[in-house]
Write a structure and sequence with these properties.
Structural class: mainly alpha
Oligomer: single chain
Largest sheet: none
Strand content: under 5%
Low-confidence stretches: 91-95
Distance between the termini: 34 Å
Number of domains: 1
Length: about 190
Amino acid sequence: MITALVSSMLAFISTNIDDIFILMLFFSVSASDYDRMKVVLGQYFGLGLLFVFSLLISAGLAVVFSSYVWILGFVPLVLGIKAWLCRNDEEAEGKEGKISLLNVMAVTVSGGADNVGIYIPLFSSYGKAEILTAAIVFILMTGLLCFGAYMLASIPVLKEKIARYRKVLVPFVFTALGLFIISDGIFF
């Protein structure tokens, strides 16, 4: 059981450490507690989908779909392009970016090819007790990840930098993430 605990923690950290930057961007545009809740729930739902999908593949129920995960790269790519196009509209109207639970979830899932790639072999070697352990670890660590990203986005110096460069940073990060996921799936 200790092995399952440690390996689940390492799998989570290695596949989700990059999410902290995207979560920081989402938290930086969240204008209310309701928006922040959508970020947290979107992250939980997205990682939950990756967890379940990996379980299904490791059980041999969805082997065909694993080679098409790269298609999910179009989600952050479209969000990035949309953010580039809407930058001037938001500046003219003085609006903050709106947070959508579905956008957060979609970005989390679309960036999850590495998650699926690591979770499948891990879950294939797990029994029911180890899978339950992994689920608990992932739930707790997702909370820590969201809390850490929120706290980092709240540091005055970081908050100021994110606010200053957000209109360029958000579209760039989403577009780059989408292109990376698509190219990784097509060429490798």
